[in-house]
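Lecture notes, part 5. Sequence design as translation. It can be helpful to think of inverse folding as translation between two languages: the language of shapes and the language of residues. The source text, in structure tokens, appears below.
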């Protein structure tokens, strides 16, 4: 196989028609591989966008949860402080 490849390369140097045909095959292979890489990059981009959107949604949900808990704790502390002040005043 390797000997045939070397012979083809040597013959390509002297035969323009063979060189053109081999270049055409090489170009097709290269184009095919680039199309395959392009397709895979498109799929990867889609996955990255999906992950980003999922993380954005989680962040938004987490922020809402934190705000609810913060409001609950502030309300609880306010009620406790008002109750303590009322107890001290009425005592």
């Amino acid at each position: 196989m390797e000997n045939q490849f070397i012979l083809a390369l040597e013959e390509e140097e002297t035969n323009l028609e063979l060189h053109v045909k081999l270049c055409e095959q090489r170009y097709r292979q290269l184009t095919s591989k680039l199309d395959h890489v392009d397709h895979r990059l498109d799929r990867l981009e889609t996955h990255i966008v999906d992950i980003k959107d999922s993380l954005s949604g989680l962040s938004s949900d987490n922020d809402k949860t934190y705000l609810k808990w913060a409001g609950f704790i502030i309300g609880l502390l306010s009620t406790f402080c008002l109750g303590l002040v009322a107890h001290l005043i009425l005592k």
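The translated text above is only one of many valid answers, since several sequences can fold into similar shapes. The chain has one domain: 2-90.
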